[in-house]
Design a protein that fits this description.
Length: about 120
């Protein structure tokens, strides 16, 4: 999951396609990923729970939250992702997710929510 989050952050769409299970890929998958990421900036990943997914396992589940900014609004994605291990590689198969807006009350001189190390007013204020 961490590698896929990093790929989303870096807009490495080929990696996302390569780690999506072949049975889940659509003909226009790469273009769809590129279009969905145009106005999105991924900020933070927090792994909440894992089940299986270790060496020798054929399946795994990862529950996580991921914060992102899209069109100037903050959101949090909460997902339970399912993975399978085939041909010496982990593949994402599906996820049950919920996206909700994040509302923050931040003072101008508080640290920015994006963890840049800057004050809010100098970063996203």
């Amino acid at each position: 999951m961490r590698s896929r989050f990093t790929a989303f952050s870096l807009q490495n769409f080929q990696y996302l396609l390569d780690t999506l299970h072949p049975s889940k890929r659509q003909d226009d998958e790469l273009a769809s990923l590129q279009q969905s990421a145009q106005n999105t900036r991924w900020l933070q990943l927090t792994i909440l729970q894992t089940e299986s997914g270790q060496a020798g396992d054929g399946e795994g589940l990862v529950e996580f939250t991921a914060s992102f900014e899209e069109d100037g609004q903050l959101y949090q994605l909460h997902e339970r992702s399912q993975f399978v291990f085939q041909q010496q590689q982990w593949y994402y198969t599906e996820g049950d997710n919920q996206v909700s807006p994040i509302s923050l009350k931040i003072g101008r001189n508080d640290a920015c929510w994006c963890q840049s190390g800057k004050k809010f007013k100098k970063c996203h204020g």
